[in-house]
Amino acid sequence: MLAGLCQLSYAQQAESLDQLSDEQLLTMFDEVIQDSLAAERVARIYLDRARKEKDTIKMARGYDRLARIFSLERNIQFADSVITLTADLNHITYPALGYILRGYNFQLGDDLVNCTRNYLEAYKLSIQNENSLQQVYLLDKLIYKKAIWGNRIEALKLQKRRDELVQDKNYIEKLRSANRIGVEFDVEEILLNDFIVSSENYAFIYYNMRRLDSARVYLKEALKLLENYKGEHLDYHRNWVIEFQMELEYIAENYKESIRIGDSIISGGTGIYMSSSLFNAYMIAGLSRTKMLNNYESGLTMMLKADSIFSTEKIRIQPYKRELFDTLLGYYRSIDDDKSQMKYLSRLITFDSIMRVNYQYFEPELIKELETNELIAQKQELLARLNRNKRVNGIKIGVLFGFVLLSCWALVYYYRKHVLYRKRYESLKSNSGPTARKSKMRRQEISDEVIREILDRLEQFERKKAYLSADISLNSIARSFGTNAKYLSSVINLNKGKNFSQYINSLRTQYAFDRLREDRMFQRYTIRAVAGESGFNRAESFSKAFYRNFGIYPSYYIKKLEKDELKTTPNPAEPLAD
């Protein structure tokens, strides 16, 4: 059904979507959610239908879907629409789901306090409206936050409340009532998944309480349950268990084992593990080597790799990660590297300031354990020493003066180039692509009928995106059109203002340009992968063609798109859908 729709114009797509039932539209939304334009189109059709029918709950479902596909700020605005629309209803799903969506998006933006406030409000409403599905989901979120930032005893109480819910003899019936009529699910798979999560939660709470024997008991229980689980969350659970075991062995000072597990995660790479898992693996493998061999150098490379991932992948700040930066600071102190000391002192001060905000909300007493004032004093002392060194080294400034002048020239050149690229980007953003060039060629001796037929074939060729095939050539396309290469080349030159190679490359680069702008997942591809998806055999050829067509390189375009819209790769489960 989706493949057929892709061949239609926008108006035809809207007409075709309008023929689908409500449930078919919601199913299609789930299938195309990674394509924000397609997902929005489906959600708008559903929402418009709901408005015509004056169905408040269906309207809420429409806004609910729109709150999942845009930037964090816009998603929160749509979640607010869900809440406003259903605030006076005692519905089993709404407005609680609106608060869940708000909390989820605040979590993606690393705003832990507002995330938790919205989850607590949703939890209160889920109890009031007897929605067990929402209660279990929210308890999982709150248990982790309490175990990391707050009172672990309270986290344990929340987990026991979760046990009561999933072990209730009427739990499955309650789940059915919390879902839309007609939604089917595997009862055994859901129950087994819930039991696995319970074991993981207990293990995580006891780990944070440093009751490691109890944590091991529940880890073994989770592993045993996983032997019979074949559901959609299998990979997540397997990876969680491996990563948790690594952290457990590290805290237990079984460094050989934590190194072995960490190295196995690193060897799995991004094809198996998320960036947050790789950060943990590099950090713990590095710290374990440092402690086991009692020297910094043994684990330095891995710790620096963890630091690099932290800086580039927007890893969430959590208390246990502080040890990495404290250890790196200690290393650079040991070798009197003032510049690197300044870097990690600043990193720790930032770390502690965020932790202070979170502890103030969850557990104010823990703020006393932070050493922010001492770190600030150390930073000021280091700055003073650096200033003294600058005065001592003043003579060297004259020697380096010529180099500075050369550097300034290079910076001016780079700045002008950057300004030019930025102007081109803003122009492209408003025009959605390069300005078409008119052909100055004269018409050749080809009949109007042949020209029309070739142009019709070219239109079909472009609509079907056949240019994405890397194997096409002028001769192969001419044969498929039932014409000869000379005629085809002439018509392209005459009507497109380009030779064949330029025409194909412009279509491919325009495809890449549009998809990068519309598809947030596509922006995460490497340049080589984007080139391959766009029909190019080599990344270099793609980059040159992209520059010729738009005046900027694709790497620059992707960076600007990322700055225009906040990006994150969510680790937690997606919010529940009604």
Automatic annotation (TrEMBL):
Source organism, top-level taxon: Bacteria
SUPFAM superfamilies in the record: Homeodomain-like (SSF46689)
GO MF annotation: an example: sequence-specific DNA binding
Record-annotated HTH araC/xylS-type domain positions: 448-560
Transmembrane domains' residue ranges: 397-415
Keywords from the named record: DNA-binding, Membrane, Transcription, Transcription regulation, Transmembrane, Transmembrane helix
PANTHER family: ARAC-FAMILY TRANSCRIPTIONAL REGULATOR, HTH-TYPE TRANSCRIPTIONAL REGULATOR EXSA
Name the UniProt record assigns to this protein: HTH araC/xylS-type domain-containing protein
Originating organism: Aureitalea marina
